[in-house]
Amino acid sequence: MARAGEVKVTGNRCSRGETYGKEEVLAPRRILTAVVPTDSPRFPCAPVRTDRAIGRAVVPQLLRELYARRVSLPVRQGQVFIEDFDGARVVFTRTLPPDEIPSVGEAGTEAEREDEIPRLQKAP
Amino acid sequence: MTDRTVDAVVVGGGSAGLSAALRLREAGASVAIIEREPYLGGILLQCIHSGFGLHEFGEDLTGPEYAERFIRPALESGIEICLDATVTEIGEEPDGRSVIALSRSLGVIRFAARVVVLAMGCRERNRGNIAIAGTRPAGVLTAGLAQRLVNIEGCVPGRNVVIIGSGDIGLIMARRLTLVGCTVRGVVEIQDYPSGSARNIAQCLNDYSIPLHLGHVVTRIEGKDRVEAVRVAPLDAGRPETGREFRIPCDTVLLSVGLIPENELSRAAGVPINEGTAGPWVDADMMTGARGIFACGNVLHVHDLVDFVTEEARRCADRAAVFLKGGAREPMLPVNAGANVRSIVPNACAPGRQNVFYLRPLVVKNDVRLEVSVGGQEISRKRLAHVQPSEMIRFTLESGSIPPAAVRNIPSESGTAVEVSLR
Fold this sequence. Notes:
heterodimer, A: alpha+beta, 4-stranded antiparallel sheet, 6 strands, elongated, B: alpha/beta, 9 helices, 30 strands, globular
């Protein structure tokens, strides 16, 4: 295993490339995305992400933690699921169930003159 | 039957449809989105991985996050949203267009509109498109379908998986299936280079030690009821070397072998299709050959980045808004794909303003010169460090680049056209 002082990065076109290159060799970090099971038959999966990269080596550990859980809907995008895992937060990436489509009348302005029109959405 | 009248109907509520609808609404038009699924967002919702929005927002977003950036404003904007509804027909009327949709809750809806924006996206090529020999067992599916099963429906399609094609969706699914407990036995790519990005090769295959067989072809799928194995052979000058064939046992085969714009509806409406892209021919206003019908996103040509879909959809909507206001149509010159260019969009340019083009190269090449010429005379050039077919090239032709003599020839009897080449 290489040590920090022994890694030399070449071919990078900016300073971030050097940091990335060293990190990639010594201790690569990744954003993890996954889905966790929900209590809803209509939306059985809630997608989540880490809000920053975590060590690649701890990915299996986080997966085990995620798969052991079940979430109750509703959830909102950005809502925190796990406060701290390897320095990252795990957050939901999709609002479930999705926000209701407003009826045409409620949407206001130009649509108001046609407020007799039925709302064009199937009731869930 | 329900009858509705709006300025613009947008067919499809994915990234292209949402961006176009929002922009038309901002321009003051009354807009309806018709979406087949029971929610907005399109394919972005099943793309739970990150890497979206770097151009558009300067952030590394997941698909659902990118989609919600457009869904929320759409819900607040007064756009009529018609979910769980399938468009079956786009017709021509004396004063515009009609769009017939079948809705689960409302039955038949007939929209009258002056503008229709096609934003139906694309479909995956499947086994029939690439003609793999062998039996027809269960367990052969496209990568995007597997993605939907795993990320939306919560089902894992198999245990031991071989992926055919190294496009980005296939690579993303190699990682995704590994993370849900499958063993990905290998990715088989017919070309000598991967179709997906270098980042995805590193983070989706190398991270999990998944073998990538470049220059190889699946010669046969085996199994009676369920897939049991695939046979793989290296290619020699385009032919499988059967003597060096090997067998990979597996129960599932995913296909990631390209996307085709979904234009059944467009064809039925009389929209002319461009062979190079398999999407509609469009002019500099993103209007198809059928008056009042515009197109953007993957229904027009397959993009690599959703950020470019958003940009294109907005430009399309801006021109559609001008059309709605009855703005005069500018003179245009046809645009053709020249040397080493598989396709270019749009297929015409308006010399009086800035024109943005997307083109798909035919070759893998370093240090390339992009040349634009009119009637054989070079008018613009740009250096590109590297081109490859899996990376779309975007370039801008500034207003005034086209010589006035060529513009005076419009409509041109002599066949004067703009040609874009890579050399």
